[in-house]
Amino acid sequence: MIASFRTLALLGFLACVLGMAFALYLEHFRGFEPCPMCIFQRVAMIGAGLVFLAAALHGPRGFGRWVYALLAATVSGIGAGIAARHVWLQSLPEDQVPACGPTLDYLMDMMPLTEVVRLVLEGDGNCAVIDAQWLGISLPGWTLIAFIGLALWALIAPVLARRPGW
Predict the structure, then answer these.
(1) Domain 5-160 carries which CATH code?
(2) Whole-prediction pTM
(3) Predicted pLDDT of residue 1
């Protein structure tokens, strides 16, 4: 049985909630301190979750489904881009890793937002540290996989939805 668009959007939202719950578990119960790029990935995960939630609550028909799908896919794509940059930083040889920088809180206090975003996306030595791996893939690698899955789910949901009018 193929589900309704609302149900499919709700599943996308729940995937984002699980992703955020896991990130918070790692931070608060396992002691992994998120680097600035990790925080930006969390913002993208929350953004994708909010788009999926809005789609589930609204339950659009026809073209409206594609609007939500493209919004969720775009936010997930932005998250995937940040995660890919993070994975790239982690793959650099040790002598090419950028120097460690100040914390995100300090940057936000001292600089305009656009400059903070630019600096964080450049990355620093904190972002190149691999704290944990599973199956040989680092946490940002798994986040990249999750964002790709969310983007694909967003684009598949309007197609899988039972009938155009439901």
Answers:
(1) 1.20.1550.10
(2) 0.77
(3) 47
